[in-house]
Amino acid sequence: MLRYNFIYELRLLLRSRWIQLLSLLLLVLFGFSTFNGEQKVQKRRSDIAAAKQEVQESDQAMIKLLDSVERGMEVSVPYWTIPTSPMAVGNYYPRVAAMEPQPMSFVSTGQADLFTHYMKPTVSGDDFTLNFTEMSSPVQLLFGSFDLAFVIVYLLPLLIIAFTYNVLSSEKEQGSLRLLASQPISIGKWVFQKLILRFFWLSVLATFSLLATIFLVGIGPFQWGAFLSLLALTLSYMLFWFALAFLVNLFVGSSAKNAVSLIGLWVLFVLLTPSVLNQLGSKLYPMPSRTLMINKMRERKAAATERQDEILDNFLRDHPEYAINDSTQTRSFYHRYMASQEVVKEELQPIVNEYEKQLQKQQTWSKQLQWISPAIVVQESLNQLAGTSTDDYENYRGQVMGFAEVWREHFMSFLYNNQNFSQADYPGLPQFHFEQRKDKSVLTVPILLLMTIVMLCCGLLASKSLKTGKVLS
User: pTM of the prediction?
Assistant: First the structure.
């Protein structure tokens, strides 16, 4: 019976043009979304390359200035930018702290629309108030990015709904259900076979479309494991929606009601649940006012400015490696300013910690409840696969702040020892090296598979109830 069902379903799909239509739709959607995601990745790479090229040209100019000054020649630049001053080098010749995109970054834009991919920390900057956000179009942020993750999470379930909503109801409406009921097979098993066959064909089409787009983008041999993870996640997500379609076909009834029910489930899992979780997280763990934090920072700076000499004395007493026994040591603006910055940072640290703590609570709460919606699980998994998740950008932010501290400490030793910067010191400048997260989550796919198995078990139980005539008469 399964063989005849397979042949009949294949002929039906070919005659109705469903396979041809789905093939074209998947190729267009996957192809365009992959192309769009790759364009965004190329834009990021070009921005980082331009920033590094600017630093390289700036360094060449700095070395020429140092060479001219060391030769005793006059230079036509403002005195405060002459690179013999360590503070001038630390402020006007910073390094690029870049977050290079990963090979699979084209899959999901994730948080890339909100956070920048490179920073240039300076010695006089406040590393705890570095602005990691980009100026983005509010319209683009509202509608999101048309990437591969958007197609998989939002559009693919709609195609599945259109492909499966009337598997059983159409037979009833055409009057052929009584003829099917006379065959030696239960209605539930027959519907199950039809949906499995449709899942098989759609999986083949989705796999082929993904392979075609991946070959167009071009990935290295070491990324095939990531591609298999992407494929497994996509097929698992599809299986979940086929399981829902199985239940709806059994328990609802007419084609119109089936379509409305499946669309309602799509709205619930894809749109409503993520929004509700986000709003509840904001209500349960409200963020402290960032404006209040900035105002407090300005107040602390103003108060520290009035007692910079006292702060400098205390700073040198606490850091004897910066205090030299030289009566000719001068106390410049930067001697007092850098010492006061350390005091301001220590005083503001509790406020910053409170802000970070609330943000961490929101993120932890959302992660604990993400299993409620498979759409959230899949989206988060794709973000992690692409290296554009919240955790990836928190990792980058932490590394930039650590590098900013290293950059500052490097020049403070020059400053407080009254040592000029020279060409010989250039090779020793700190360099930023971004390290990708190694604690990638591997539990998201099993969680989604578990949810799918549960739904399939519910469907099998429902098919047994069909024998009693309780589901469909």
Answer: 0.83
